[in-house]
Amino acid sequence: MSPTKLTLTSDxxxxxxxxxxxxxxxxxxxxxxxxxxxxxxxxxxRLITLCESTSDWTHxxxxxxxxxxxxxxxxxxxxIQDVGGTYHRVIVGPNEAVINxxxxxxxxxxxxxxxxxxxxxxxxxxxxxxxxxxx
Length: 135
Known about the structure:
mainly beta, Jelly Rolls, seven-stranded antiparallel sheet, globular
């Protein structure tokens, strides 16, 4: 079998419990379709995708089913985690990463437009407008 070339800014990969990689062509950040088509209660898996952020995030995100790894490949961002009402901040640049722990709301400010590789437990993810909890 020949290798499959992916463009992770538009495609994605689902890593299942058997550690198999399932290609999601033309993903285009359609998280609802991804969860419906690839995730189950018995095997929620992990989504692997590459995203560019050019402005501060407008929401807080929380992943209740597991930790998320964010690896910045270019640019710089300030990631903010709300740990029990205390904001923890870390600046992450190229080849640096942050782990967003399960159940911990997090958001990001763009220092310079950044691209990051995300390995995310998708099911159950919630979004809260940043205006409800400004930082």
